[in-house]
Amino acid sequence: MKLLHIDSSALGANSVTRELSAAVTARWQDDLPGLRVEHLDLDADPIPHLTGRSLAKDDPAESERSERILQQFLQADVIVIGAPMYNFGIPSTLKAWIDRVAVAGKTFRYTADGPEGLAKGKKAIVVSGRGGLHTGQPSDFQETYLRHVLGFIGVTDVEFVRAEGVSYSPQHRADALAAAHASIPRPQRLAA
Q1: Closest C-alpha among 84, 87, 97, 83 to residue 48
Q2: What's the mean per-residue pLDDT of the chain?
């Protein structure tokens, strides 16, 4: 079994999502001996944003990296995504990754009945860090977007681990982190 661990926060050691995504990954490693883990740090090694040159495959090195990113995603059974809320959405570095894995003919296709996701059978655990309180609010473009785009490409088993209100006060941050740590899912096949 293979787990792809993605971090996109620009906050380094101060990142709520980096702390939580590492905890999710560690729990899965503890519960599943032999689990192979790949880590992708989109802040330390950002993916170029999609451009006309990218689509035209004018840069062989960029095209090769895009294919590696797509294959890394396709080969993963579990994807742990550290997704902080930036300006009510996701970091642009995470959007650049999505642009490399949402590929017509590879992870989705259009049929007479509408779009069909091709990346089925995967589980996604999205770790969400938010300065304010946004769950269920019109300001939540982060979670609704991620749930939609992952479902569009066929990843419908999606769980969220949330730490909200972390910017209100040190106590809010500590409480939100404690609640998020307590909600980290275990691998389903071990639960009973």
Answers
A1: 97
A2: 93
State the pLDDT at residue 51: 87
- Distance between first and last Cα of the chain: 20
d(Cα 120, Cα 1) in Å, to the nearest integer?
15
What's the half-sphere exposure (Cβ side, CA atoms, 13 Å) at 22?
A: 10
Q: What is the pTM of this model?
A: 0.92
| Dihedral sign (CA 168, 169, 173, 178) | negative
Task: Quote the pLDDT of residue 192.
Answer: 37
CB atoms within 10 A of CB 181: 15
CB 3 within 8 A of CB 167: no
Spell out the residues 6+ positions from residue 126 whose beta carbon is closer than 8 angstroms to its own.
81, 83, 143, 146, 158, 159, 160, 161
- Whole-angstrom Cα distance, residue 66 to residue 103? 10
pLDDT digits (tens, 9 = 90+) for 26-61: 999 999 999 999 999 999 999 999 888 888 889 899
